Structures are given as C-alpha cells and as structure tokens.
Amino acid sequence: MLFRRPHRMLKILSKMMTTTQIVPMTFFRKQNMHSSLSDAFPKDLTHLSLYLLLPGSLTTDTMDPVIDRLTCFKSIDSILLDLKSIGLFNDSNKRFDYFFRLLKLLYLSGKHEVVTDAFHHMVKSHGFIPNTLASNILIDSLFSTDQGLAAMRVYFKMNSPDSCTYNVILCHFCDIFDIPNLSAFLGLMLKKRYYPGDITFNKVLVAICKLNDYNDKIDVIPPAYQLLGLKVKLGMELSTNGWTSIIRKCCELGRLHDATNFFFDMIQTDCSSIVVPVTHAVLLKAFLESNKVDDALHLVNAMLSEGFKPDKDCFAKLVAALCADGRMDETVSIYRDIVMKHPHSDVHLDNQIPIMIMTKLINSGMNANAVTVFALANGSLKVREL
Known about the structure:
Number of helices: 21
Strand content: under 5%
Largest sheet: none
Helix content: 55-70%
Order of helices and strands: HHHHHHHHHHHHHHHHHHHHH
Number of domains: 3
Distance between the termini: 74 Å
Radius of gyration: 31 Å
C-alpha cells in the first residue's frame, strides 16, 4: 500500500514545500517517475498531492494559483499521469475520493473547460465512476462553457438526479432565457418533490417578469402570483431583487394596483428598513409619473406608519408634486411626519426641500405655516448635530 508511514510522508512533503531544491521522493514506491516531475513546477504538484491526500490541509484560495500554473503549462491528462506516477491512485479504496476532490477543486477554481476534460479522462482512462454530485459539477461546467446539449445528455444518463441537479439546470435555463425548458423542468422538479432554492426561485421569477419584454401579449402577473404562492407555501423568503423585479414589471405594465399589493406583501416579510425604500422608490416613481399624487401620498404615509423611511429623491419629487398642485396643508403635514418620526434621517435634511416648501407657502400667503416648516427644519438640524 502507498504511504505505509503517513507521518514520514507528511514530514517529507512539508520539507519539499519549504525548500527550493527537489527532494528525492524515496517515500514513493520504487517506480519510474514521470518526466514532468523535473519540470518547472514540482512544488505545485506536491501542493496538489497534499491537498488531495489531506482534505483541509490547504485552502481552496491557496490552491487557486497552483491550479492556474499547472493547467496553464500542462494538460489535465498530463496532470493525472503525474499524480498516478507518484502512486496517488494506487489505493483503489481512496482513488475515487482523490478524483472527486480534484474535480471539485478545478470547479471551485472556475476552470470549467478543464473540469469537462478531467471528467472525461477520469472516466475513460482511470475508471472513475461519477456520483450525483460529480455529475452536477459536470452539468454546471458544461452549461458554463455553452455546451447545454451535452449537459442535458449527462442529466438524462444520471441514475438519481437530486434537488441540486434541478436547481443548477433551472438557473442556467434562466440565464439563457429558455422559458419552455425552464417551465418543463420546474414542473418535473416539483413532481419529484424537489423545490427550487432561494437563488433559483428569484431567477425564475425575474425570467418570468422579462417575458413581457419579448411578447407584450403575455400577462406575466398570474404566473408571478402563482410562484409567490408556492414560495409562501414552502416558507421561503423572496429576495429584494425578486420583489423589485415583479413590482417594476407591474409598474411598466401599468398594473399599479398589483404593484401596490406586491409591495405591501413585501413589507409583511422580514425586509429591513434599508431594503424597503429601494423597492418603494420604483412604485412611488410610477405613481408620480402617472400623476397619481394621491396614491403616492398614501404610499408614503403607509411607509411611515410601518416604521420605514422613504427614499430621499422620491420624497423630494412627492413634495414637488404636492406643491405644484397647491396642496400645501398636506405638504406641511407629510414633512412634519417624516421629521418627527425620523429626526436623524437624511431624507429631509436636504435644504432644497424645506426651501421649496417655504417659498411656496410664502407665495401663497401662508406665512405661519412657513415659520412652522422653518422651525421643523431648524430643529431637525439641531437634533442631527447632537
């Protein structure tokens, strides 16, 4: 058996990694060494051997430059022969473990083309029998190198595809916007009682929302509702990008009522006070562009009552719209609310906002209200300074 004395092996490997000379590899069973061991990168092969032999001995980040150098000057077949020549694959009980670790390392290093070559050589020349995880890695690498048909052939040959398999395939179908296959595999996944992960779900939702960009006759809102219903049933959270995508699409389609419903559904989740204004800005902008000032005002009031603060630019646009309509009492009221509820916020500290309000009030002969706004602005500045 290879490495009958593991402590001695580690000692010699460590010495090889810390010296500039090539240490005689007497610990390897007497055999002909591959000529490439005397090439320019013997240390890299030593690092790779140690990584495969002892998981956790070296980090993936440490191995990235090693893999870069080896794959730059050697073919994957040559690297496998190097590893075989030093006896790494002699132990039949651990051989497949080493193969999989190497495959995973190449994959994590982003060497997708090398992954596909390595997989081929391992199976054809070294008897590697891939498990489900190894096949998933190959499928992802094939899709990443624009070999979708080859990836699907791998899928159909798999004995037991798992949830990860379907998530990988769905993500790539979303990336290439293959909606028919996306829909088919989503249905197949659910029939097998597997469910999309959070990242996959968000990608699917974004892809569905983009459907209308290619065919304006397609109503994307019903399937979006269905997806959200599925997500709620599964107890999964929708990301900010997912919420924003569907709300933006509703706004683009003029479905502001649906957009509002989605927005308040989002508020009921665990979205943070930083996240909500980002999506809120999309909806508020749509209301103002549609000249629905009442809806915009209601939205801001609802946000404030939920404890969120609106986006600064959107708040400025709302104030400008209210002033343009001559609705000064409501303008002063909303300004007072935001100053009182968020005294440390930068939303109302833009001098242009109170100046705009006070100018309009003075021109309208509402001097007392102008003094109130001045006091609010001056008081918020003092609070901020404290």
